[in-house]
């Protein structure tokens, strides 16, 4: 790692009721007053797991067994690159106390958004609460088969769906869209219509902005209660998506894809560079499938977005 990289380990500690422990950074420290997942910097020669166990013993007075990775968030500031490496805490002994005088709070997961946290924590909170798959629909050949495949994807657990139906004759598109929205709603999945703000406003559903449309938007094109997402390819688009109040962005293509022949992938290194300059939740897209979720999380992604990779019966 370059000299200006700081590796920070942080733990997601949950109690029997599923509440998450946050600690408040004390006065006089950097980011004072903000709430964080307890943890701290890895010291020279220390393994990440040992560092996390040491930090939690020092800061909370508990003895922990470090569990599964949640995600790694690279975050660039003018002076350094932070790598916030978040793990679940599998089990712990003792009663957490603010050993350094810091305030502690046990927080219901759905209330985490009410706590003011450092920018790199925002994607982590999203990763704890929101789906790690986002299906983007392929163009239908046969409408009945397409609806059956959508239903199968929902039955398989997909909870975010971007309805992308470019070039369909309007009457056919409207009928298919209405049925697809009904299926998503019945399954409790969040649906986003691609590139049709007027329809999204009228139907009260989510809107996905293709990057060309994102660049044209000067203000949030749907109400604050309607989900909004955008496709992004560079830093300027990510900044704009964040300024508009997008709930998340889809970034890629990470690998070359069948749906965009001839377009090279940006790769995970470039994905991380862009991730490090934004605090939006980001789905990685481009030649990815459910097997890639852990890798994506390791590069700071919320998870994967895919057409073929999430479409039942498609060749991944
Ligand atoms: N522990 C923790 N640190 C975070 C989070 N989010 C975030 O941006 N950070 C930043 C704040 C700090 O710049 C850095 C962690 O350093 P720290 O000051 O807690 O380090 P430490 O516990 O080893 O304490 P110190 O001895 O360096 O004072 O990471 C988070 O959720 N948890
Ligand atoms: Mg600390």
Describe the 3D structure:
The protein has 2 domains: 5-113, Nucleoside Triphosphate Pyrophosphohydrolase, CATH 3.90.79; 133-310, TIM Barrel (Alpha-Beta Barrel). It is built from 9 helices and 15 strands. The protein has helices spanning 48-60, 121-129, 143-155, 170-187, 197-203, 211-216, 235-244, 267-275, 293-298; strands spanning 5-12, 20-24, 35-36, 39-41, 63-76, 81-93, 104-107, 133-136, 160-163, 190-194, 206-209, 228-232, 248-251, 282-285, 303-306. Helix 3 (143-155) runs parallel beside helix 4 (170-187). The relative contact order is 0.12. It binds 8-OXO-2'-deoxyguanosine-5'-triphosphate (8DG) and magnesium ion.
Shape: elongated
Structural domains: how many: 2
Total of DSSP H or I helical runs spanning 4+ residues: 9
Helix content: 25-40%
Q: Tell me what portion of residues adopts beta-strand conformation.
A: 25-35%
Give the radius of gyration: 21 Å
At the fourth level of CATH, the homologous superfamily of the largest domain is Aldolase class I
H/E order of the elements?
Answer: EEEEHEEEHEHEHEHEHEHEHEHE
Provide the list of bound ligands, each named once: 8-OXO-2'-deoxyguanosine-5'-triphosphate, magnesium ion
Features of this protein?
4-stranded mixed sheet, alpha/beta, binds 8-OXO-2'-deoxyguanosine-5'-triphosphate, 9 helices, binds magnesium ion, 8-stranded parallel barrel, metal-binding, 316 residues, Nucleoside Triphosphate Pyrophosphohydrolase, TIM Barrel, 15 strands
